[in-house]
C-alpha cells in the first residue's frame, strides 16, 4: 500500500507563525505532537515527520518556503516517496468558508489561493484531497491578501485550538478513508 502525504500550508518563520494563512501548518504541528514526533529537515525543502495513522504509513510535511512556492517541495516529496496524487492531503486556510467551519474535498480550483495554485502547477493535477479550514472573509474593505497575513483576532484565538484539533481529526479520518465518510462527520457548521 502506498504512503500518504499530508501537507500543511503556511509561511516559514516566527513572523508568520500565528497568521491566518498558517493554519495548515498549525494543524501539522498538532498532528506531529499527537504522535510524539519532531519535524526533521528533508532534502526536498520541507520539514518531515514519518509516522502511521492506523495501518497507513503517513508523511507529515511542512514546506520550508513561502506559500506561493510550496508546489516544488511537495512535488519533490511525492516523487521521492512515490505517493499517488489521490493520497496527498493538503491542509489550508479558506477565505470563502466562515471561521470555524471545515470542508473536505477532492480536487477543485485554487480560488485565488497562491499555495494551491503552486501545488496544482507542480503536481500537474488538482485531484489531491483538501482539508479547507475556514477563516472567513476580511471585514469591511480590508484586502484579503493583508487579512490572511494577520494573526487571528482575540475572539478567534479563544476557539482556535478547538478548530485546529478538529482539522487534525479530519486529516486522520481522510487517511482512514473514504472521503465521503469523513465529509459526513466533519461537514457541520461551526463547533460540533
Structure description:
The protein has helices spanning 23-34, 71-81, 114-123, 144-148, 154-176, 179-186, and strands at 4-8, 40-42, 46-53, 56-63, 88-94, 102-106, 129-134. The protein has 192 residues and is of the alpha/beta class. It has a single domain (4-186), classed as 3-Layer(aba) Sandwich (Rossmann fold). The longest helix has 23 residues, at 154-176. It is globular, with a radius of gyration of 15 Å.
List the helices and strands and how they pair.
Blueprint: E1 4-8, H1 23-34, E2 40-42, E3 46-53, E4 56-63, H2 71-81, E5 88-94, E6 102-106, H3 114-123, E7 129-134, H4 144-148, H5 154-176, H6 179-186
Helix pairs in contact: 1-5, 2-3, 5-6
Integer-rounded radius of gyration: 15 Å
CATH architecture field: 3-Layer(aba) Sandwich
Class from secondary-structure proportions: alpha/beta
| Shape annotation | globular
Number of strands: 7
CATH structural class: Alpha Beta
Mean pLDDT: 94
For the largest beta-sheet, the strand count, sense and barrel status come to:
7 strands, mixed
Q: Which H/E pattern describes the elements? A: EHEEEHEEHEHHH
Distance between the ends? 33 Å
Number of helices: 6
Tell me the CATH superfamily.
Peptidyl-tRNA hydrolase
Q: Summarize the amount of helix as a percent range.
A: 25-40%
Order of strands, widest sheet? 2-3-4-1-5-7-6
Low-confidence stretches: none
Strand proportion: 15-25%
Number of domains: 1
CATH topology: Rossmann fold
Amino acid at each position: 500500500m502506498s504512503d500518504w502525504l499530508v501537507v500543511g500550508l503556511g509561511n516559514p518563520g516566527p513572523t508568520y507563525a500565528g497568521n491566518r494563512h498558517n493554519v495548515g501548518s498549525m494543524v501539522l504541528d498538532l498532528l506531529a505532537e499527537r504522535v510524539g514526533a519532531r519535524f526533521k529537515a528533508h532534502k526536498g525543502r520541507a520539514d518531515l515527520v514519518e509516522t502511521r495513522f492506523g495501518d497507513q504509513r503517513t508523511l507529515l510535511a511542512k514546506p520550508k518556503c513561502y506559500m506561493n512556492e510550496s508546489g516544488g517541495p511537495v512535488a519533490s516529496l511525492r516523487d521521492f516517496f512515490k505517493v499517488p496524487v489521490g493520497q496527498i492531503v493538503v491542509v489550508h486556510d479558506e477565505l470563502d468558508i466562515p471561521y470555524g467551519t471545515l470542508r473536505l474535498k477532492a480536487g477543485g480550483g485554487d480560488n485565488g489561493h497562491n499555495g494551491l495554485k503552486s501545488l496544482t502547477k507542480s503536481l500537474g493535477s488538482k485531484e489531491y484531497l483538501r482539508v479547507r479550514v475556514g477563516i472567513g472573509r476580511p471585514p469591511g474593505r480590508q484586502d484579503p491578501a493583508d487579512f490572511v497575513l494577520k494573526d487571528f483576532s482575540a475572539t478567534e484565538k479563544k476557539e482556535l485550538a478547538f478548530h485546529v484539533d478538529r482539522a487534525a481529526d479530519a486529516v486522520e479520518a481522510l487517511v482512514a478513508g473514504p472521503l465521503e465518510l469523513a465529509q459526513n462527520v466533519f461537514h457541520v457548521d461551526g463547533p460540533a
